[in-house]
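Quick one: structure tokens for this chain, please?
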Amino acid sequence: MTAYKSDLFFGSLTGNGRVLVVDDEPDIRRVVRLMLEKAGYEVLEAEDGQAAIEVINTGENRLMLDAVVCDMRMPKINGVEAMAYFRDHFPHVPLVVLTGFPDTEMAVSSMRHGVVDYLVKPVDGERLKSAVGLAMKRRETAWR
């Protein structure tokens, strides 16, 4: 297995970065993963907030994760709770919401709490790539 080297530390040697996709629907995760991999991102997956917290705390992920794309309504630990955990423990990792239940109040609240973008399923591939690209730029500037 080859070692992953984050673009943050190693420039453009490793593709566009590492993204964690958190969604309880396997088909959604697969489609999002395929769209992001096609755009050059390495993608990790988690089926709910609890699994996402385990993934981000595993191995080098706590240092090498560049962005999180997270659903809101999931079993165990939902997206709101998971994103609060990410903000508290990994404030340098930008967050993108991807939800099937659009809610204006939730969108405004999420954006006020630092979420880069609030996307509604089914998401257009270009819109998703644009949101993740913006998240990567925010991560880059956070480290400067």
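Residues 1-13 have pLDDT under 50 and may be disordered.
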